[in-house]
């Protein structure tokens, strides 16, 4: 095996295609409005209706500042995505962008990580959707059996906590433990399965299979409804805000706020889903950069507003639930609004699931066309003009775990791979600058010479770290910070030598820092997933790569 062949790259001048540019049969019907709404659908569904409650539970009202910090980190990354989108017109998101800059082995790693990100994201949203669905049914007097609307892992862990007699257990944990205790048994095994979560994945996978036009129409309608609901909740909740609930603002300190970084960052990952639909966009090089930045700006404002309202209405201690919006209005005896939220959320969260189910098969489709996955994944349905086989497999991969898993488990699983993808996209822009390709981009990351600024920022940050914090205890708790500081030193040297652009460099640093906030279990699961992916690559993708065939010719 030739080591250099691991870093073979796509030709950017060819639009990110391998070989001659072809029409693969997908329908180009998406405009900037449609793309923006796809981004809003993915971002809002993942956060406001699910993980935002758990983040506030750990960090208190100060989590609103964490949303600002994470949004800034995402802006650096989104600008890099936007530049790539203006240069490369194929589907594949970060996979394609990395293939054109850092090489095939990194592209495979990112593609494999994105499979994990998109799958896990939809599992989380589907589990949250299930909570709102059963709440909605209760509002209509319909009792859905609890043991058929909860994952086995969630109920079992709650039961173990109760049996261990742990103090101050939240209400939702006690309820889950009771469901486990009373669940029927077959051959000594408890029957516990989340039917609504898995069922909604199957239903929407069917819609995605039928076509992008139908998916677009449904998504646009649901996003308009979703944004309207959030604005309604913000206005209605404002009248129940008690400023006393904002004190203490950061009850668990900086550590408590940053402890929610996985959940908060997860809320923003949807903006990269826009780039998976490049081949179904009318004018991808113009519209995709705009859509990414538009959706990120809209969602950041909504996140901050809803976080302040939620933590102002009730104590942050009450927010460790999967359906925080409906829950807080129940606590203030506004069951009517809680009912409206539950009914609307069931409809609105659907759009987030839909977008991720659209994005995942298109990444597989692109990898298959490049020869890195089996040809079947790249086949386009003759009638529906969608990647049919990839769509079906994506539905199976997401729906089956959704029947059984706990939401917090899958939230933590997705974040490392996402950070990794974002870091490589930012690094790819630095490569484009170095090679002079950025001059050809229709949208370019604003250039600020980081030759001296990166080093100055390092000295300031490191001084604060050493003199203002208990760095020894912090390093013992988060040893991965050592990797972060070493990487910053390396980037400082590289920025001085090559006059690196500041914004992509800050994107790398902020995403790398956020990675250090994640636990060892996150890293271990991601490394295991990556090891499986690399095994597949060397057994199949490396040998079958179409780019390798072209280079040999």
Automatic annotation (TrEMBL):
This is Amino acid transporter. One of its GO terms (molecular function) is amino acid transmembrane transporter activity. Its main location: membrane. It holds the Pfam family AA_permease_C. The keyword Transmembrane helix applies. The chain crosses the membrane at residues 35-57, 63-82, 191-210, 222-241, 253-271, 291-316, 336-359, 386-404, 416-434, 446-467, 479-496, 526-542. It is a multi-pass membrane protein. InterPro entries: AA/rel_permease1, CAT_C. It comes from the Bacteria. Residues 502-545 form the Cationic amino acid transporter C-terminal domain. It is found in: Membrane. Keywords: Membrane, Transmembrane, Transmembrane helix, Transport. GO terms for cellular component: membrane. The keyword Membrane applies.
């Amino acid at each position: 095996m030739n080591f250099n062949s691991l870093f073979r790259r796509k030709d950017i001048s060819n639009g990110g295609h391998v070989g001659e540019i072809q029409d693969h049969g997908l329908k180009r019907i998406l405009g900037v409005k449609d793309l923006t709404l796809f981004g809003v659908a993915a971002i809002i569904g993942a956060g406001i209706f699910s993980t935002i409650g758990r983040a506030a539970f750990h960090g208190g009202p100060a989590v609103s500042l964490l949303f600002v910090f994470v949004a800034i980190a995402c802006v650096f990354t989104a600008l890099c995505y936007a530049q790539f989108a203006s240069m490369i017109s194929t589907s594949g998101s970060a996979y394609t962008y990395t293939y054109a800059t850092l090489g095939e082995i990194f592209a495979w790693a990112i593609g494999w990580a994105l499979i994990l990100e998109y799958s896990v994201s939809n599992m989380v949203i589907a589990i949250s959707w299930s909570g709102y669905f059963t709440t909605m049914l209760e509002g209509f007097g319909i009792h859905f059996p609890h043991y058929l609307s909860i994952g086995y892992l969630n109920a079992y862990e709650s039961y173990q906590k109760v049996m261990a007699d742990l103090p101050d257990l939240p209400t939702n944990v006690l309820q889950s433990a009771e469901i486990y205790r009373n669940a029927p048994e077959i051959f000594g095994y408890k029957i516990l399965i989340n039917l609504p979560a898995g069922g909604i994945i199957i239903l929407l996978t069917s819609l995605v299979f039928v076509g992008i036009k139908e998916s677009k129409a449904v998504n646009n309608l649901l996003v308009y409804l979703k944004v309207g609901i959030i604005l309604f909740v913000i206005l209605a909740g404002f009248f129940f805000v008690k400023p006393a609930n904002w004190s203490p603002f950061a009850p668990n300190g900086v550590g408590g706020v940053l402890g929610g970084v996985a959940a908060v960052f997860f809320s923003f990952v949807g903006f990269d889903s826009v780039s998976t639909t490049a081949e179904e966009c009318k004018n991808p090089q113009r519209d995709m950069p705009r859509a990414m930045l538009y959706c990120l700006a809209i969602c950041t404002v909504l996140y901050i507003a809803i976080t302040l309202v939620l933590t102002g209405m009730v104590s942050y201690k009450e927010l460790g639930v999967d359906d925080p919006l409906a829950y807080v209005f129940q606590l203030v005896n506004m069951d009517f609004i809680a009912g409206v939220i539950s009914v609307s959320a069931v409809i609105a969260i659907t759009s987030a699931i839909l977008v991720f189910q659209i994005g995942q098969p298109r990444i597989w489709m692109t990898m298959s066309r490049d020869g890195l996955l089996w040809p079947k994944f790249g086949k386009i349905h003759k009638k529906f003009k969608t990647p049919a086989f990839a769509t079906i497999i994506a539905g199976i991969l997401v729906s089956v775990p959704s029947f059984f898993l706990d939401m917090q488990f899958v939230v933590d699983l997705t974040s490392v791979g996402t950070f990794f993808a974002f870091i490589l996209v930012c690094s790819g822009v630095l490569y484009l600058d170095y090679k002079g390709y950025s001059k050809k981009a229709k949208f370019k990351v604003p250039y600020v010479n980081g030759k001296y600024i990166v080093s100055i920022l390092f000295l300031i940050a490191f001084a604060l770290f050493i003199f203002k914090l208990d760095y020894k205890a912090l390093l013992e708790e988060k040893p991965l910070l050592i990797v972060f500081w070493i990487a910053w030193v390396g980037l400082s040297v590289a920025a001085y030598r090559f006059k690196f652009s500041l914004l992509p460099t800050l994107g790398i640093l902020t995403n790398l820092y956020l990675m250090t906030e994640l636990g060892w279990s996150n890293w271990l699961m991601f490394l295991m997933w990556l090891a499986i992916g690399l095994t597949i690559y060397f057994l199949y993708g490396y040998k079958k790569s179409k780019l390798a065939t072209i280079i040999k010719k």
